[in-house]
Amino acid sequence: MDREKKYTVREMLQFFLSKVWENNRKLLIFSLIQIPVLVLSPYINLVIQKMIIRGITQQYIFSRFLLTVVTGYALILLIQALSEWLEGRSEWYNRVLVNTLLKCVDEKTLNTDYKNVESAEGQQKRQKALNSIYDGGQQLIKVSVSCMVNLCGFILYGITIFSYQKVLFLITAATAAAGYFFNDRLNKYEQKQKDRMADEDRKIKYLEREAAATRAGREIRLYRMQNLLYGIYDKTICSRLALEKNICRGRSIAGSSVHVLSLMRNIFSYVFLIVMVHNGQIKVEDFLFLTGMVTGLSVWISNFMSDLSKLHRFFMFFCCFFEYLDMPETEDAAESHYILNTAPSVRFENVSFCYDGSAHEALKNINLTIHPGEKIALVGRNGSGKTTFVKLITGLYRPTQGRILVNGVDITKYGSKEYFKYPAAVFQDVLLLPVSIAQNVSSATEKKTDGNKVAECLKKVGLWERVEALPDGAGTSINTQVKMNATDLSAGEQQRLMIAKSIYKDSSLLVLDEPTAALDPISENNIYQQYNGLSAGKTSVFISHRLASTNFCDKIVLLDSGKIEEEGSHDSLMKKEGLYYTMYKEQSKYYRKGYACKI
Description:
Elements: H1 9-23, H2 25-58, H3 62-111, H4 114-118, H5 120-137, H6 140-164, H7 166-212, H8 214-222, H9 226-278, H10 284-325, E1 346-353, E2 363-370, E3 375-380, H11 386-393, E4 401-406, E5 409-410, H12 416-419, E6 423-427, H13 437-442, H14 451-460, H15 464-468, H16 491-505, E7 509-513, H17 521-534, E8 539-543, E9 555-560, E10 563-568, H18 570-576, H19 579-588
Parallel strand pairs: 3-8, 3-9, 6-7, 7-8
Antiparallel strand pairs: 1-2, 1-4, 4-5, 9-10
Helix pairs in contact: 2-3, 2-6, 2-10, 3-5, 5-7, 5-10, 6-7, 6-10, 7-9, 7-10, 9-10, 14-16, 16-17
């Protein structure tokens, strides 16, 4: 998306109206009915008051006079009751619209390129999009209806006053327009502050999420980190409150200016009307009617300008919403129907990758061939580029330079969504949803989950006996913090469940990205050996920071500072006595009998 792209009000209105029409047409119907109801109610009230004064001064027939009053106020009560009912219904359907907009953001987050989710820019834009919904989405329809009501009221009252006295109408309209000027300046100032507040909100949400996380709770207590977190949290909150204080100060100045203008308008109107009564140009009932009309017109204009300012502000905020939805995606080639039903070959040709905003390349000129059915181990120090390699081979990222060929075809020609069907990966950070064990394995709804296939996968990873012993078997939900009668799995069991998930996918390209980093060496080795057997006939990439766990692989690739430093079998690399040899010896000495740890 072009960063300088401007979204017109017409484009945004078309989008929102289409969403309303698709999801809750009743909101649109109720909103349209509200407009004449809300406009006519106060107007009829003023007309009835005028008739009452005229009836008193001109001595109407009592029965006729009483009937007029009762009928008029009965009509007003009926209109007000209808208005309350319509407002209640509109409030409910308005929540549906907010949920629809939130769903749009969630759909973008779940389907956009992974780099948009991982990057700081993407996270910031997502937070701004959410803020725009919470700041404007919850009131958009309500304020739009109010704006139309006030516009219709302004027209109706304006025509009425204009028919009596043009000058009175012009003065009232001019002062209201000046008030809009102050509110417009305030809105532009608020938008700048809101952009800065989005950064602070992201920090606050991160701190709140980490403070509530179970894994973080242990370290917070054991290391007495409460005061440190309080300090960071207070500093962030104070920064955000300072921005809100600036907004409140601006609102106060703008509000005071509008009140002064309103006072001047009212003084002029009353003096003008009193002079007209004194000169016999209007009667007493007309004076009371017109004072009500001037007050009403002032309210209609002020509210209309205020609503217009709010809508302007909402639409400025909603630019952030559309900017997030329009974040650029990787352009997939039209040619995207390749099928990987056998173990593929993978070839990196002069592949380099640099993260957005980084001055250093994470991978530099990588040339590597993985043959069909071959098992390779990717090893190296932290920060050597292993995780970036995984993101590229799984299609989460595209190379900055060079290309990746799968079965001789450039990975970009598969199309991202098409390509994601084929690789299966097990990562270090486990994603367990609060649904059944079976659904976590199948990554599908309960209806689309093959129970027999789930059982076979759990048996292959040695989890079936544990799962079968649960009250609901594979139908038992995970995460006791979310659901009653659920279960929690140990770290090793979680990793086995993720391996079962990759087996269920029945992929021809398998990747293990340090999934056992939190396990002891023996447990890690057992899982790798088990996965080695399960991956027979498949192209596999094993990544581990423990070199001894991957010496069963056909080939070992050692990355260092984003480059391939060494490549070969375990035995050949040991004979070479290079960096791999040094790292292997350094790690293995901790497990040799009689080694004395020197501290």
